[in-house]
Every structure is written in structure tokens, then in C-alpha cells.
UniProtKB/TrEMBL annotation, chains A, B:
<keyword id="KW-0805">Transcription regulation</keyword>
<keyword id="KW-0238">DNA-binding</keyword>
<protein>
    <submittedName>
        <fullName>TetR/AcrR family transcriptional regulator</fullName>
    </submittedName>
</protein>
<feature type="DNA-binding region" description="H-T-H motif">
    <location>
        <begin position="43"/>
        <end position="62"/>
    </location>
</feature>
<dbReference type="InterPro" id="IPR001647">
    <property type="entry name" value="HTH_TetR"/>
</dbReference>
<dbReference type="Pfam" id="PF16859">
    <property type="entry name" value="TetR_C_11"/>
</dbReference>
<dbReference type="InterPro" id="IPR011075">
    <property type="entry name" value="TetR_C"/>
</dbReference>
<feature type="domain" description="HTH tetR-type">
    <location>
        <begin position="20"/>
        <end position="80"/>
    </location>
</feature>
<dbReference type="Pfam" id="PF00440">
    <property type="entry name" value="TetR_N"/>
</dbReference>
<keyword id="KW-0804">Transcription</keyword>
<dbReference type="InterPro" id="IPR050109">
    <property type="entry name" value="HTH-type_TetR-like_transc_reg"/>
</dbReference>
<dbReference type="InterPro" id="IPR009057">
    <property type="entry name" value="Homeodomain-like_sf"/>
</dbReference>
<dbReference type="InterPro" id="IPR036271">
    <property type="entry name" value="Tet_transcr_reg_TetR-rel_C_sf"/>
</dbReference>
Amino acid sequence: MESEGHETEPGTTRPGGRTARVRAAVLEAAGDVLAEHGFAHLDLADVARRAGVGKTTVYRRWGTATGLVTDLLLDMAQQSVPRTETGSLLGDLTANARLVQRTLADPRQGALFKAVIAAATCDPKAAEALHGFYAVRVKEWAPCVRQAAARGEVPEDTDPYEVIRAASAPLYYRLLTTDLPLDEAAADRAATATAAAARAGAFGRGA
Amino acid sequence: MESEGHETEPGTTRPGGRTARVRAAVLEAAGDVLAEHGFAHLDLADVARRAGVGKTTVYRRWGTATGLVTDLLLDMAQQSVPRTETGSLLGDLTANARLVQRTLADPRQGALFKAVIAAATCDPKAAEALHGFYAVRVKEWAPCVRQAAARGEVPEDTDPYEVIRAASAPLYYRLLTTDLPLDEAAADRAATATAAAARAGAFGRGA
DNA sequence: CAACTAACGGAACGGGAGTCCCGTTATGGA
DNA sequence: TCCATAACGGGACTCCCGTTCCGTTAGTTG
């Protein structure tokens, strides 16, 4: 029962050089393990071995499997793919859906996202990180819905966030609850359906 | 390295009486643990203690946490809520979406589904069971789309399964990737959007 | 370029998860 | 009803996850 007041986390006072190298090596190794064996078999000692890093270090800095996955997600959040603009809502949503589809269909990336979702259902910290991750992504794409509203494609009171989420949702649902292939047709269908619903005013804030 | 040919699993030769009682007690205890602490802290020894059952028995019959969750899902699959018929596609989809929403919003049930999803992302057996579970549910509701097609509400070539999945997807996506409330409004929005998209022919098999 | 110390790494340790052994219970069939 | 044995249960045992201790390495500051 430590009675001390909030000691500084390892890696915060001297974030440069070796500390950063260790983090990079560990996160890469963790990604490898997740892609190969999945979240259930994510053993911190194994990660340390692969990363060429002391077991103690991994336990000290990340503590648990969910903690490690959470940091991996924070790292993933850094690399942002820029949004493309096509001039129509359907075009923009299709671009978004295909981006999501390619990411989830990629063996390594798909496994990582599955692991992150699994971690989020177990651990509040991981869940918070995951929610933040998607909040950023959704916010990034929301402007395309506002532009569509400005063009008169959809009603003025359309909720942009709901539209963007609606375009991704079927892809995640398909990934998690079926063994059907996550192909481009699925992405296009999600985009088409979302665009049609948005045009019909299904995402109006009032209704 | 057993060279023996496929020994019978415990519980298959004498499924009645004590065996069934043990299974019921263990599954209930497992559900309690999942609802309280989540999948990450599902300890088989703890489950055995709560169920008033020998630790050895739990390890022998279920082996791992994912195995236990898988059996729990098979048990959940038994209880089927009958489909309601309202006479319109929007009405039927709303009924379906609200059923899903109420299930996921319920503290215990919601926790169970989260756990099952987490297990499915880790273990192939669990994934197979989960996919089967949703295949049955989707199949159960598909007729309402065919009836809508017969009434001329949606195009003839509409894929019923895709429509049903589309109605649930936003709710699961919201549950997993956001901290927004999973309320009835979200369910109604999902149903409205799906119905509108279906009417517009977004779930046509050809397109 | 020193000095200070944050952060790492090896090694030994403790505890609990998972296994094994074998005696006990009670089910399904004759 | 009785028998054969499937399935359970307790307890001892093993192994490895996670922790602790402390010496070593290398950022950071002046």
C-alpha cells in the first residue's frame, strides 16, 4: 500500500535515446506476437525476448498485456492517413470505407485491431484509448458530411459523426461476427447504404 | 503426444443428472465473474470456487477461459427471443434494433457479449461459435426483409442478410468504439437508416 | 566533459495457475 | 436392483508469470 504521492512513470523524465529505442523495439515485437498468436497468447516475457530487451523493463513500463496493447494503440494513432476529397458524399464515404476495409483486411493490421478491441473490452484504460482513437478518426472525416450539407446533398441538420460511424460499422460487424470475406464490395455497400440513408435524412439531429 | 484416437470428451457419455447440474452451476458462475470483472480476470479456479465445484472438473471439461466462454455462448444460443411482425420493414427493423439495444445495454448481458467478442478475437473455436450464433439470429430475422420485398417496399434483389446485419452493426460499433450511451434513439436511428438504404436499393445483390 | 541519476538488465525469489494421481460418487444400462 | 464406469473432488506437485533487488549503462544538465 504505497503512501507516496504519484511517482513519475518510467520513460517520462528521459524520453530520448535508449528509452525511445526500447519502446520502439517492444511495440514492434508486441505487434508481431499479436499478428501471429493473438491477444490471448500475448506474453510479456516473450515480447521482451523478441525485442532483445530485459523482461524487467517490459513489466516496469507496461505492466500488463492490456497496458502494452494500449500503448501500441497510442503509437498507431500517430500515423494518420490524410482524408481524400472527391466532391460527392458517396465518393468520400466510399474512400473512407475502402480505407477501413483495406486496413482490417490486411493480415497484420487486422490482427492488431482485433487485439485492441479485445483489450478494450477487458480494460478501462484500453477502452479509453480506443474511444479516443476513433473519436479523432471520426472527427477527421466529419467535414465531408458538412460539405455535402453545404452542397445540399443531405439535410442541414445531419449529424456528421453518425454518418461517418455508419459507414465503418458494417465492416467491423462483419469482421467480428461473421466469417465472410471483408472485400471491397462490402466497403462499397456500406458507403452506398450510408449515403442513401443520409440523403433520406435518417441522420437528422432532430428526428 | 498421445497416440490414441480421439477420446470422448467428458460430459458426452453421461450428459444427465450431475453432469448437467455441474455445467449449469459453472456457466452461471462464469457469467457472474464476466459481468463483475470482465474477460481478462476470468480465472477458472475462481469460477470453480463460486460454482461449488472441484477445480479439476472445470479444467478437465473446459480447459481454458476461451473454452468456457465458448460453451457459455452455446448455452446462450439456446434461448431465442421470437421475432415480432409489425407489417412494415421499418417497424420490423426497429423491433430488431431495439431488442439488440436492450440486450447490449443490460449490464449483465452487455458484459457477456463483450466477453464473448473478446474471446472470439483470441480463439478460433470461440470465433466459430460466435459466427454460428449470429448466423442463426440473422437467418431468423431475414424473412421480414423478404416480406418487405413481396410488399414492394424494397427491390426484389435485396439481400435480406445484409439488411439485418446493417441494422445491428451501428449498435455494436457504438458499444465497442465509443463511450456514448446505447439508448433507444441509437436503435431507432440504426433502423431508420437501414430501412431508408434498403428502400433506395443499396442492398441489391447485383449492384 | 564530468556528475547525477533515470532507466535498463541479470538473477534469484514467491505465489498462484494449471496438472496429475487416485479415491469417491452417482449415472445409465442390464 | 445391481454393476460397470463416467464423471467428480481433494490434495500434492510443478512450472512459469510477475516481482524484487541491486549492479550497470547511458541520457541529461550545468
